[in-house]
Design brief:
By secondary structure, this protein is mainly alpha-helical. It has one domain: Four Helix Bundle (Hemerythrin (Met), subunit A) (Up-down Bundle), CATH 1.20.120. It contains 15 helices and six strands. The strands form three sheets. It has a two-stranded antiparallel ribbon with strand order 1-2. About 9% of the residues have low confidence. It comes from Coffea arabica. Belongs to the PTPA-type PPIase family. GO terms for molecular function: peptidyl-prolyl cis-trans isomerase activity; protein tyrosine phosphatase activator activity.
Length: 382
């Protein structure tokens, strides 16, 4: 092309337009224009309003958003205690297909486990993390165990390597945690329940990520909830412990997991990228939104207020999650976390909490890639 030749000019306007009749004038070119006749309404309703009555719904929703919308809000349940005679066994993975998921979700076992998670959420409703609560010896023991695991991280520094994810020193930490797991379980078990260690250990060791893939995600977090549920079925922790299980135990677990994620650069397992809630966690958003229900001043949109985040993140799990995400992700919040940005437009925390419970059921507990790693034994029966 000749140096003096002018580059091709763009068209006068970037918006395509069509002239239909001389009734009005086009603002772009001055020509006559009119709107085309709209198409007739479709008989195939793909949009379902939020208040759509939950009767005669079509089966097999075509997308996740519809599935979440149609899912009833999960309800709390009292944990059914495990009755003797006991037959403890090493739990195994069973789920391999969507049919298995359907079978699981129609079982009383699953309803009781999900009901336990909802009960934990309700126990922390409208409470700050520092609020006084019943702290049993079992809760103290669990917190001490997690403290030891945090100390292990300090004793095992990351190996020098250039890879973005997956520091191999994590495997050393994981091996050490696994080798001590049985002794940790025995600290919680009375003599008549010592045999339960064989069943509890796999749930516990699967709660902190995968040592071969060096990753962590909501499936591992669900295993931690399942481990707590096993303790509840064995009556090692009771209903009066639930608030402390969130405000003391789960908070300490989250501290450990964030330390592991940052120290050993754990890869997010099965992350949805920007369209996920968070690369690693789900439960702290459920518990955290419950904490903020009926709060006088803080609304879902308050996550955009830096003063609120700075002053209250230590007391509210939801806010601490937002602070952590802003710390590890750069750029505009609406771009790297559009899902959380959308949720901030919901009018109140009660709606946020019920929506997240439904989302957890659909996005985590109904997904084969996540639940294929879930374990079943005599405490959580298939």
């Amino acid at each position: 092309m000749d140096e003096k030749e002018a580059p091709p000019q763009p068209p006068p306007t970037a918006f395509a337009h069509h002239h239909f009749s001389p009734s009005t004038t086009c603002i772009n070119c001055g020509g006559p224009t009119a709107y085309p006749t709209p198409p007739p309404p479709s008989s195939n309703l793909t949009y379902i309003p939020i208040r759509f009555p939950a009767v005669n719904l079509p089966t097999n929703p075509t997308n996740t958003k519809e599935a979440i919308m149609r899912t009833p809000v999960p309800q709390s349940q009292k944990v059914v205690p495990l009755q003797p005679p006991y037959s403890f066994q090493t739990p195994v993975k069973i789920i391999s297909s969507q049919n298995d998921i359907v079978r699981l979700h129609s079982s009383p076992t699953f309803a009781n486990f999900l009901g336990f998670v909802v009960s934990l959420s309700e126990s922390i409703k409208s409470h700050k993390l520092s609020d006084p609560c019943h702290v049993s010896p079992a809760v103290c023991t669990i917190v001490d165990v997690i403290e030891k695991l945090i100390a292990f991280v300090d004793e095992i520094p990351p190996a020098p390597q250039s890879a973005r994810y997956g520091n191999v020193a994590y495997r050393t930490w994981h091996d050490r945690m696994s080798s001590d797991a049985e002794s940790f379980m025995l600290l919680l078990l009375s003599p008549d329940l010592r045999d339960a260690a064989v069943e509890l250990v796999p749930y516990f060791t699967d709660s902190f990520g995968n040592s071969s893939r060096i990753d962590y995600g909501t499936g591992h977090e669900t295993n931690f909830a399942a481990w707590l549920y096993c303790l509840a079925r064995l009556q090692i922790v009771k209903e009066e412990d639930y608030q402390a299980l969130v405000s003391r135990v789960f908070v300490k677990y989250l501290e450990l997991m964030r330390k592991l994620q940052l120290t050993y650069s754990l890869e997010p397992a099965g992350s949805h990228g920007v369209w996920g809630l968070d690369d690693y966690h789900f439960l702290p958003f459920i518990f955290g939104s419950s904490q903020l229900i009926d709060h006088k001043y803080m609304k879902p949109k308050s996550i955009h207020n830096e003063d609120i985040l700075e002053n209250f993140a230590s007391e509210y799990l939801y806010l601490s999650c937002i602070v952590f995400i802003k710390k590890v992700k750069k750029g505009l919040f609406a771009e790297h976390s559009p899902m959380l940005d959308d949720i901030s437009g919901v009018p109140n925390w009660k709606k946020v909490n019920s929506g997240l419970l439904k989302m957890y059921k659909v996005e985590v507990l109904q997904k084969v890639p996540i639940m294929q790693h879930f374990l079943f034994g005599s405490i959580i029966k298939w």
